[in-house]
Structure formats: C-alpha cells, structure tokens
Amino acid sequence: MRIALDVMGGDRGPEMAIQGALAAVQERNDLHVILVGPRTLLEEQVAGHSSGWHGLRERITVQHAPEVITMDDSPVEAVRKKKEATVMVGFDLVKNGEADALVSAGNSGATMAAAIKKLGRLPGISRPGIAGFFPTVKKPVMLMDIGANVDCRPQHLYQFAVMASSCTRLLLNYDHPRIGLLSIGAETSKGNALVKETHCLLKQGPFNFIGNVEGRDVYKGDVDVVVCDGFVGNISLKISEGLAEAAMQMIKQEIMKTWRAKVGYLLIREALAGFKKQVDYAEYGGAPLLGIDGTGIICHGASNAIAIRNAIEVAANMVRNRVNEAIVHALGEYTA
Amino acid sequence: MRIALDVMGGDRGPEMAIQGALAAVQERNDLHVILVGPRTLLEEQVAGHSSGWHGLRERITVQHAPEVITMDDSPVEAVRKKKEATVMVGFDLVKNGEADALVSAGNSGATMAAAIKKLGRLPGISRPGIAGFFPTVKKPVMLMDIGANVDCRPQHLYQFAVMASSCTRLLLNYDHPRIGLLSIGAETSKGNALVKETHCLLKQGPFNFIGNVEGRDVYKGDVDVVVCDGFVGNISLKISEGLAEAAMQMIKQEIMKTWRAKVGYLLIREALAGFKKQVDYAEYGGAPLLGIDGTGIICHGASNAIAIRNAIEVAANMVRNRVNEAIVHALGEYTA
User: Fold this and answer.
1) pLDDT in tens, B34-77
2) If you compute the radius of gyration of chain B from its CA atoms, what whole number of angstroms results?
3) Which residue is closest to A72 within chain B, CA to CA?
4) CA distance A80 to B200
5) Confidence (pLDDT) at A51
6) What distance in Å separates residue B233's CA from the closest CA in chain A?
7) B101 near B4, Cβ under 8 Å?
C-alpha cells in the first residue's frame, strides 16, 4: 500500500506532514509513504529526522514537486498554471499506478480540481464531492457534500447518497447505512425547492433512505449519512467548528468566576480534553473525495501529525475496501 | 404597553405561558398582558393562580379565542380555515390597536402567515422574515432569516440586512451594526449563485456591510448581523442546538469515566449550568418577525416561563424603540 502525501499543503508546514507519515508507517508494516514536495527541502527534513527513522527509512521515499498551490490560489487557475504543483504531481503518481492514493492538507478546491483533471470521474458520476465525518453522541455520521459543489441539482445529491452509502458501509462497517436528507422539517413538504425534488428521487435509490433529517438530528447519531449541497454542508461544518470552540471558551469563562469551580476544573480537565478530542476533526482523519477515479483524502489546513496519520490510514482503508468499485456497482443498480 | 400572548402555542401548555406573563408584569409596572385562548380554560387557570396575583390581576386580562393551530397544521391552510385561532385573534388585537404586539410559541410558519394576513407587510418589504439571536463569546449576533423564506432572491437578503441592521441598532444598542453575508469563504468570489449576487447588492446598502462571513465567524462575536436565506439559517440554528445538546452529553460521558472527574463535576456544575444558560434560546427572548406592519415575536415551542417573559420584554422593546419606523426609513434611503 503506497500513499502519496502532499507535504506542502498544511498550514503547519512540511515538518508536521512528515511526522504524520512517520507515525503512519510505524503503525502499519505494509504501508509505504511517498512524500511529495521540493526535493532539497524534503531531503533536509528527512536528514533532520534520520535518527528516529530506524527501520522505517525504506518505507518513506521522496518525489520531487517544485511548485505549491496556496490557500489563496484560485483552484481552476492554479491547476491550469502550476503543472508541477505537489497535488498535480501526487495525482500523477496515482494515475500512473506508482501510488494508491493521495493525502493533502492543502487548498481543497484545488485538490478536487487536480483530482478531476488527472484521474477523471468514476463512470456515471457527474459531480464528485467531499465527504466529511461528524462526531455524534453515538457513531460518527458522514455529511456529503461539505464544500465542493455549492449549486446542485437533485441528481447530484442523489449521487452523493449513493457514494456516501457505499463509503460508510465499507469504511465504517455500517450495515445498511441510514441516509437522511438535510432539511428544515421531517415532513416531505418541508425544505427548499432543491430538497423537495431531491426527496422524491432519493426514495427510488438503492440505499436505505430514512427521509428528511433536521439540523438537530445530525449530532444524535440516529442517521449514518446526511446528504446536502456543498454550500449548506460547508456552513454546517464551520458553524459546528465555531460553536465547539466557542463552547469551550464559554465554559472556561464560567469556571473562572468562582474558586470552587476553578478547583473543579483541575479535576475535570482531562474529561474536557477527552471531549475536545471527540469533536476534533483531527481524530476523524480527513475527508474523502468521492466520485473521482482514484483515491484522494483532504485534511483540514490546520492538521497536526495525528490528523495526517489518520488521513493516511483512511486513504489506505478506502483502497483496501475497494470503495470506488462499490460506488460504480451501486450506481449501476439504479441506472440499469 | 399592551402585549397579547398566545397561551396555546407552546409545547408546555397554557400554564407555562401564564407563568411567563405573570413574571413579565411583575418586572415592569407599565406592562399589560392580554392572554389569548379559550375563555373557560383561561378562567380556570387564572382562578388557580389568583393567590399569587396580588396587585397584578388588573394588568392581566383575557381574550377569548376558541381555536388552536397545532405544530402539524399547514400554515397556509390553517390561516385560511381556523379564523378563530389564537394567533389570528391575537393579531386582530394588534390590528385594531387593542394590543401593541403579539407573542406566540406556536407554529412559526402559521404565526408568520397570520401576521402577513392580518397586519400586512411594511411598505416596500417583499418578504418578511424571522430574526434569531445567537449567543457568542462576546455579544449576541442576529441571524436572519432563520426559517420563513427557504428560497430567496438577492433583494430579499438585501431587505433582511436592512431590517436586521435597524433592529439590532435599536433593540441591542449596537452602533453601526456590522452586517456579514453567510458564505463559505471571505472572498467575494466564494459562495453559491445567490450569495455572489447578494454580495454585490449589499455593498450598496445603507448599512455597515463587512463582507462575507463563514460559519466559524458566527460564534466569534465579530459580526453583529448574519444574513442568509431561511433554509441555511434554520439549519444553522438547529445544527447549533443539536451540537450544544450533544456537547453537554459528551462532556458528561467523559466525566463519568473517572471518580476524580465526578468529584470535579460537583464543583463545576454551576459553571456548566451558566454555560447552558448562555447558549439557551430561552435567555434570548424569542425571534422577532421583521417586515410585518406591526410587532410579533415567535418563541421556541419548548419555551419555559423565563423564555416567555423575555419574549414579552423583547416585544415591548421593539414597540418602544419604534423598530418598524426605522426599517421603513432605512429602506427609503436606498430606494430614494
């Protein structure tokens, strides 16, 4: 299993990516990571790490890619102009069979654009999308799309349902994943024009459609896949991140008001850290690009080494479990 | 100041509404509350309370309304068929000058429909909307629309900005409220088709437009008004409610893992309750209907007495501060 890793993507620099790669190969003996980035920079970094690489060195190799797509680059332009960028070279490795998947913490729009350009779409898929994992009080839920497609038609949301259903079944071992359509009421009549049309279409799909779900239901853990357009999905994700952060701050503000609570804080600090870990995107290992003819995982720009390691793990599991084959098969069931 | 209160709206029954009314008139001497509901039921309830009403009795009166619109009723049909429903009778009081505003914890779609039918729109307003208050680490932010208009055009969002700007200035005493457009990136180029068009329009408005804001920014407190369509707004609200609830459960699950944390919990319990109070909709006193020619406040269906009292307070402040006059004036500045 060979995973290409874009070391230039994350906000925290190549050091963090390399630490993640190291952690990943330490964990699994069958894993090989190809670091993609400027050769001189990578060789310096690798030299700096050499003492800790005992026995792992041969499972971490370097692929030169001189250009970097930044967060400020326009995805379409960047993909056209920066042909030697890390994500472009990384997806070339996947295309040529030299790597099984690419992991990047870079510009997610550009990563998606590069994937479509280099690998193309899976047969029958019109809009690949990004699937995100959300923590709940029970098991994680997959939300799709979380940002790739801001203006969607019903058939796009239908395909998201097919893809996310196959993915959660194979990646998270969910039996007959429960698919919900994100709306503002459980009734079929509730929602905007897109949702009302999509509802009818989802009823006919080869998956376990349980109807509309509301924002409140996302975190209850009684639905496995939540389908929505990329605008609504991205806002849901960011609102959640913002609230989780604000909640920790508000709780601390309240605690600092009394000595009694300050003492209590010392005793529950670990529990709060446990909660933070639970809601932390880092633990959920990045977001699969679904619908491309190959495997790509996008990590949060602020990813730390654990997040990178988890994303590599998720990428490997996507390949091992042949998620793409299952998607094409499921799509065929309907169009047949 | 006379506020009509729909006692049949909330999930918790008329008892809760009456307690809220009692708390409101206790707090302010210039307040009069008109309970709207079935006369016999109200008279029974009022008789049950009589001991606690010392000196307040004359500031709480009863208006008979025999019908009730339930949460399951279709707003349009209910407003057409149930002419004697509490919200219909309540808005009649406002229309006839017998009340200054109506507060209801009932079916929000029906309350909006009844308001439009009985009071009409403010001159120049094409789509009245519902404005919601969200807590942040700093001051509350107003989000509009939170559910009345699921499919919007740019000019509707423009009018939401005008209305919410006037409302936060007068109701929350925000100087030059900062207006943000909810999107998936700060750049003008980011967002769906609706948001991109709206961005251009908001730049021309008679308010302090600070550009696109992301979901993450909502809870930071660096924006005073967040503009979005009612579909996105409602999902933002419900996702937040769901996550806040799930967060409390997750924190408790973590705390129950060790004795040390359990002891700590006893010491921080009050701080957690303080946090819960902060995020609790109850403290934010309901959601103003903006754009109708009169004053109406919608409360959460699960409202307790404190929420009802706060909503009555907000209704009175809307009237005192002549929010509607300010809206019409601000709208004129642009169309002139």
Assistant:
1) 999 999 998 888 877 766 666 777 899 999 999 999 988 889 99
2) 21
3) B187
4) 28
5) 64
6) 10
7) yes
Task: Tell me the C-alpha distance between A101 and A1, whole Å.
Answer: 9
* pLDDT level of residue A167 (50, 70, 90 thresholds): very high
Strand partners, B225: B142, B179
Q: Round to whole Å and give the CA distance between B297 and B311.
A: 7
A280 to chain B: closest CA residue: B247
Give the mutation candidate from A181, A231, A265 for the B interface (greatest B CB count, under 10 A).
A231
Residue A132: enclosing H or E segment and its boundaries? strand A129-134
- Tell me the average pLDDT across B121-149: 94
Residue predicted with more confidence, A303 or A175: A175
Q: A267 is written with which tokens?
A: 């005793």
Supply A94's token pair. 């996947």
For residue B167, which of B158, B177, B157 has the smallest C-alpha distance? B177
Q: In what order do the strands lie in the sheet with A2-6?
A: A60-64, A32-37, A2-6, A101-104, A296-298, A287-290, A129-134, A141-144, A225-227, A178-182, A208-213
DSSP string, A182-245: E-SSSSTT-S-HHHHHHHHHHTTSSSEEEEEE-GGGGGGTS-SEEE--HHHHHHHHHHHHHHHH
Q: Which of residues 43-62 of B touch A (CB under 8 A)?
A: none
Query: Does residue B238 have a pLDDT over 90?
Result: yes
Q: What's the rounded mean pLDDT across residues B135-150?
A: 93
Q: What angle do CA B48, B52, B58 make, to 5 degrees?
A: 90
**Number of Cβ atoms within 10 Å of the Cβ of A148:** 30
Spatial contact of A99 and A3, defined as CB atoms under 8 Å apart: yes
A243-254 residues labelled b (16+ CB within 10 A) or e (exposed): bbbbbbebbeeb
Find, in chain A, the residue whose alpha carbon is nearest to that of B249.
Answer: A137
Lowest mean pLDDT among A50-59, A146-155, A282-291: A50-59
Q: Determine contact, residues A242/B222, Cβ cutoff 8 Å.
A: no
CB neighbours of residue B216 within 10 Å: 17
Q: Nearest by CB to B275, from A137, A147, A250: name it.
A: A250
pLDDT of the residue at A12: 85
User: For the purposes of burial, counting CB atoms within 10 Å of the CB of A75, is it exposed (0-12), middle (13-18) or buried (19 or more)?
Assistant: middle
Give the position of tokens 């809009």. Answer: A127
Q: Which residues pair with B178 in a beta bridge?
A: B208
Structure confidence at residue A69 (pLDDT): 93
- The whole-angstrom distance between B168's CA and the closest CA on chain A is 21
| Distance from C-alpha of B209 to C-alpha of A325, rounded to nearest angstrom | 48
A144 pLDDT band, cuts 50/70/90, is very high
For B121, the 3-state DSSP assignment is: strand
Question: Residues of B with CB below 8 A from A237's CB?
Answer: 215
Dist CA B121 CA B77 (whole Å): 20
Q: State pLDDT tens for residues A189-200.
A: 889 999 999 999
Does B124 score more than 50 pLDDT? yes
DSSP-H helix ranges across B50-85: 75-81
Report the alpha-carbon angle B115-B116-B118, nearest 5: 65
Q: Do B231 and A274 touch (CB under 8 A)?
A: no
- pLDDT of res. B281: 62
